[in-house]
Design brief:
Elements: E1 31-32, E2 37-42, E3 48-55, E4 57-62, E5 67-78, H1 83-87, E6 96-99, E7 102-106, H2 110-113, E8 117-120
Parallel strand pairs: 1-3, 4-8
Antiparallel strand pairs: 2-3, 4-5, 5-6, 6-7, 7-8
Length: 122
């Protein structure tokens, strides 16, 4: 909805309030730490969502050999969407992290899925 006033001077009026299922939750920030911490969140229809709170391991897929390994994350190298997130070691989709196997790009949304997946970067 537009904020402010119309050209004629009239106010924009909200149609209705948000319902409980339309409300947004507090944004989750997943930091690199020494342990993986997860939490279950109640969803609609009795469903449960597992979310990640802190992370240390990543499932790395090598696209050439089609093998997946679980390795430990050493450091966040860069985050293309926001360079300040890399400085704070925050894990989001698209971030490039340093592992024992080399540089890996995170390919999923850890805040939504509860695990971290990635692919090797040349």
């Amino acid at each position: 909805m537009k904020i402010g006033r119309k050209i004629t001077g009239g106010k924009y009026v909200k149609r209705r309030k948000k319902k409980m299922f339309e409300r947004a939750r507090q944004p989750r920030v997943i930091k690199l730490s020494s342990v993986d911490k997860r939490k279950k969140i109640k969803g609609l229809g009795g469903n449960e969502k597992v979310v990640l709170l802190t992370g240390k391991t990543i499932n790395v897929t090598d696209l050439k050999s089609r093998k997946t390994k679980k390795v430990e994350i050493k450091n966040v190298v860069e985050t293309p969407s926001n360079r300040f997130l890399a400085r704070q070691n925050i894990l989001i989709k698209g971030a490039i992290v340093q592992t024992e196997l080399g540089k890996v790009r995170i390919t999923n949304r850890p805040t939504q899925e509860g695990i971290i997946n990635g692919v090797m970067v040349e």
